[in-house]
Design a protein that fits this description.
The protein is built from twelve helices and 17 strands. The chain is an alpha/beta fold. A six-stranded mixed sheet has the order 2-3-1-4-5-6, sandwiched between helices. Strands 8-9-7-10-11-12 form a six-stranded mixed sheet, with helices on both faces. About 40% of the residues are buried.
């Protein structure tokens, strides 16, 4: 069940969505036109679950191309929804833009609730009466800032929602895939290509996307939640408050993702900022791949591509794959999604203990463990202790003899042997008998 939240610019739609859902997912700012794409946020009220669709402000008189794209997204949200919430500014009264939107909504089939926002005290309640003349029923006075009237508004919305059948159970196999990168590298174009529709506004203007937008798709029989994010610039270059908060939401989107696709511009190669973004994803425990987009316009020579892949393997601990594609033409996109789902699956793989111990023997044969003060490190036993991300424990005779260089060698051999490039791996070196001593100390 979906509820579209629409209205004129700067009437408080995003603030109301945050208040109704009890989240802070939608970017809110006093500046007009901050929201552009349609942003879906889960909501629950009295046992009913539904999705609020936050949309950009619709100004039919504005001829700016960006405003035209925002209107298209808002209308698409209405077509996808069972109920519409028409947000108006009670302090400003009925404006020509409100009347034009009301005329549009009267001609649509979905039921409409008029939410007279910015009624922040009881003495302002009378202001809502002015909106009866829109011809959309009794206006519901609310305050997104103070929370007044939001319960009554949710009661009305739930009342208008059609009866729901058996709610589908959450699928543990769902893959959360975050598309991240610098501004204007083609992230939204990739999301639109995967969605098969203009789901995200695409523009040559950097910073068009501002919210982290979740989009559910089915790819090869698997449910994938695709998260398009705002571009992340170097911190020193972020001097705009809206951009700061949109970048912060991009980082939070990575925190809840299984896989991060770091989109780069093939014409520029993999830059220092691309590496910083990849490291951000890795620190959050995401499986990661770097994607050179715009390959149709700026293909690299084969030797240059091999150089980039070797450079990533040496600079990034996860040794992520470097893939190529063109979001505009679709070249390489199918392979990209297959690789992303494969990375998510490898996060959940559990390797049998006998296999790990055979691997451990091979590692010792390939490279002898280091020695300190005449005593050599011995790797005695290996087992996997958890997944997502994969975590392993190696029992050793002395933890003090484990060097950083040898630990990285073991990790790299593990990635190569079990196909874990791009997957975060944790290896604990536990000293033999340390657990027993800890128990005795207690």
């Amino acid at each position: 069940m979906k509820v579209a939240v629409v209205g004129y610019p700067n009437v408080g739609k995003s603030s109301l969505v945050n208040r109704l859902s009890g989240t802070r997912q939608a970017v809110v700012h006093e500046r007009s036109g901050v929201t552009r794409d349609r942003h879906e946020v889960d909501c629950e009220w009295n046992g009913r679950r539904f999705t609020l669709i936050d949309t950009g402000g619709m100004d039919t008189a504005d001829e700016d191309p960006m405003q035209g794209s925002i209107r298209e997204q808002a209308i698409a949200a209405l077509e996808d929804a069972e109920v519409a919430v028409f947000v108006v500014d009670a302090q400003a009264g009925v404006r020509p833009g409100d009347e034009e939107l009301a005329d549009l909504l009267r001609r649509r089939p979905e039921p409409v609730v008029v939410a007279a926002n910015k009624i922040d005290s009881v003495k302002d309640l009378a202001l809502a009466a002015d909106f009866h003349r829109l011809g959309l029923g009794d206006p519901q006075p609310v305050s997104a800032a103070q929370g007044l009237g939001t319960g009554d508004l949710l009661d009305r919305v739930v009342e208008l929602l059609p009866d729901e059948g058996d709610a589908p159970e959450q699928d543990d196999e769902t893959v959360r895939l975050a598309v991240i990168g610098r501004p204007n590298v083609g992230k939204s174009t990739l999301v639109n290509r995967l969605a098969g529709q203009t789901r995200m506004i695409v523009s040559d203007v950097a910073g068009t996307t501002r919210d982290a937008i979740d989009l559910r798709l089915e790819v090869g029989g698997r449910e994938v939640v695709l998260v398009d994010t705002a571009g992340i610039r170097r911190q020193a270059r972020v001097d705009d408050q809206v951009e700061y908060y949109t970048a912060l939401r991009s980082q939070r989107a990575v925190e809840r993702a299984d896989v991060a696709l770091v989109v780069c511009d093939a014409g520029e190669g993999i830059t220092a900022q691309d590496l910083r973004i990849a490291e951000l994803a890795m620190k959050e425990g995401c499986a990661t791949a770097l994607v050179l987009n715009k390959w149709d316009a700026s293909p690299m020579a084969e030797e240059d591509l091999l150089h980039e892949r070797a450079r990533m393997a040496s600079k990034l601990r996860l040794r992520p794959k470097v893939l190529t594609m063109s979001a505009l033409t679709g070249r390489g996109v199918e392979r990209l999604v297959s690789e992303a789902v494969g990375l998510a699956d490898r996060m959940k793989v559990r390797i049998p203990t006998p296999e790990l111990n055979r691997f451990l023997s091979e590692v010792v044969q390939q490279r002898q463990p280091p020695a300190k003060q005449g005593s050599r490190l011995r790797l005695l036993y290996m087992a996997q202790v958890s997944t997502r991300p994969p975590r392993f424990a190696i029992t050793v005779n002395s933890r003090n003899r484990v060097t950083r260089d040898y630990a990285y060698f073991v990790e790299n051999r593990l990635r190569a042997r079990f196909g874990m490039d791009g997957v975060p791996v944790i290896i604990d070196f536990n000293e033999r008998g340390s657990r027993r001593r800890e128990v005795e100390d207690r």
